[in-house]
Structure prediction request, 714 residues.
Amino acid sequence: MVLTVCHLYPDLLNLYGDRGNVQAFTQRCRWRGLPVQVKEVNLGQPVEFADYDFLFIGGGSDREQALLVTDLKNRVDALRMAVDKGLVVLAICGGYQLLGRYYRTPQGKRIPGLSLLDFYTEAGEQRLIGNVVIEAELAGKKTKIVGFENHGGKTFLNGLKPLGCVLSGHGNNGQDGWEGARYKNVFCSYLHGPLLPKNPVLTDYLITLALARKGYAAQLVALDDEIETIANQAMVERLSNKK
Amino acid sequence: MKLQLIMALLVAKIAMYLSKLSGQGRGSSLPGMLALRIYPDLLKQYQGQPRKGVIMITGTNGKTTTSNMLSDILVYAGHRVVTNREGANLITGVATAFIKASTFTARLNCDYAVLEVDEAAFPGVTRWIKPNQVMVTNFFRDQLDRYGELDITISKVLDALKQLPEDVKLILNADDPLVARLTRETGQAAIFYGVRPDEALSSAAAYSREAKVCPFCGGMLVYNIYIYSQLGDFRCPQCGFARSQPDIEAVGVTSGGSGTQATICAKGLAKGIWPMYIPVQGIYNIYNGLAAFAAALSLGVIPEKAALSLSTFTPATGRMEAFRYGNKQVTLTLVKNPTGFNQALTALLAQRERQDILIAINDNDADGRDISWLWDVDFEVLTQYLEQFNRFICSGQRAEDMALRLKYAGVPIERLTMEREYQRAVEAALQGEGAVANILATYTALWPVEKILRQRAERVSIGANRVPSVS
Ligand SMILES: [Zn+2]
Prediction:
């Protein structure tokens, strides 16, 4: 058994230390002795989504994002099929927006997304920037997730399940109190920082889901998470003191 | 109105005097800020006053070092120079530099103004002061949450350049596609400097490259050789945009503990070959030296004089600043973005002695509030030489995040220490078992750490034993 990670377009989508998400996922597998490998897929390269256990899509600048919508459009049917069969996906920031129905620019132009998930994004007047704490429910347990957001678009979920509710920060749009989106095993979020290293509960949940999909329903071995916990709590405390 | 100007200068000069008394004066932009509040048009008073010209240095990395190198060369060549030496590079810092050098009626007596200007502040500063030369060092990702994305930063600089008089001369890094593009886009004349593409310098690290996409046609750039980050011998197969042959080129670059050397070949400005030695480590310092050298030549300085001045260069605070504590060699380095941090790590690895490392990370506005860039730094290289490192002490407001980054890079937990207090963190580095201590800090952590170091250790110049005698 080997868990296979697909890092989609690392050449183009690598803003805000996104590489760290792939690193956290793979390191936490390795520390437990779970064999794991990463394949980087770049523009124009063939990809069989069905062969992967975990797909990561990061954020890029507008210029870079426009380039790859075209590229991904050709692959969207295969991706949709894999998602329906439980492929574990983490999409951050620009990668998140990409999966929705459209992005509406300040001029009112609709740039179509992949329509994998039923949300939409509109350009806001101001960028939403800053440290964030949200509360999410993962495997029936409430957990505090921390990160940093920096996005111009405001995302509205259309009834889709969010990743969590905002305790401090802006979240999807600064209005409805939600952050991120969930659909089957797809997790979307505006939080980088990167997201996974400082939120080991989420990382381990993604690993568990990926294993379960492969037919391994084992309990993960506990790791020494002292530094992760301190880093996470330091931000939770800082932001709760601010209020 | 004139009275208001004198008021503004008076207030600023009193603030300068007071901060000097309290020992907090370095790198300050407070006097300029106060003066601009009283007299917003202040900078206009200085326009045209430097007799021979104004040179501005902008770009992401190397501004402070390059600007200090150039002003040192010009002073050495016998000119009077006004400069913002300690890296206060916003409009307030530029104002401070002028106020400091001028009379109470804003009169200057100088040949040149050499000004380091922050990329985001460049449009604002050039509104008042028209430079005769603009040097652009490089464009890397820096403090994203302050400026938005890199594209926006570049277009701000580009738009400001287009507003300048036609006869402005650009001095550009030929190896950075994001910089080299500026001459074609502005139509302004440029002098190019660069490092000759050489297999031996080629770096394998593919992280945090910025310019994968051609700025003109959107095609993917192809590289023969990467020097570091997106610097190198690039070419766009689609539209033909490519590295241009530099007017000033460094050949055979080597860098080690005692400094960096190369041979400079010049074509356009002056013809000839000169040896260059800079008493600071790191290939990036060759770029800084080349830029200063190119600017100096274009201002008519004799090449030998420029090279000699560079060989006695003393770095500013936190630019590989050297200290001695007993027998221990201590180096303090400012880190502010992935490219600069990677360069600093390369310099650490070049030291063969066993060392203790202190990394102090803050997330104030001046540091960048978003610290996710730490994950774009290639800390993984350290774990290939773990036997070289004793302890990693993580400090500053984001000490935990730094420790976490190192943990995921593969540093064993038992070698990691978290110590938010600077005093205790510095002490731990000084008392470490290593023969060498290397301290890396972000902007707002740098000053307090440097203050402690100055109390505890002795400041030395790396090149002190190598300075050639000036006859
Ligand atoms: Zn091109």
User: Anything to note?
Assistant: The longest strand of chain B covers residues 248-256. The pocket of zinc ion is lined by residues B 214, 216-217, 219, 236, 238-239, 241 (CB under 6 Å).
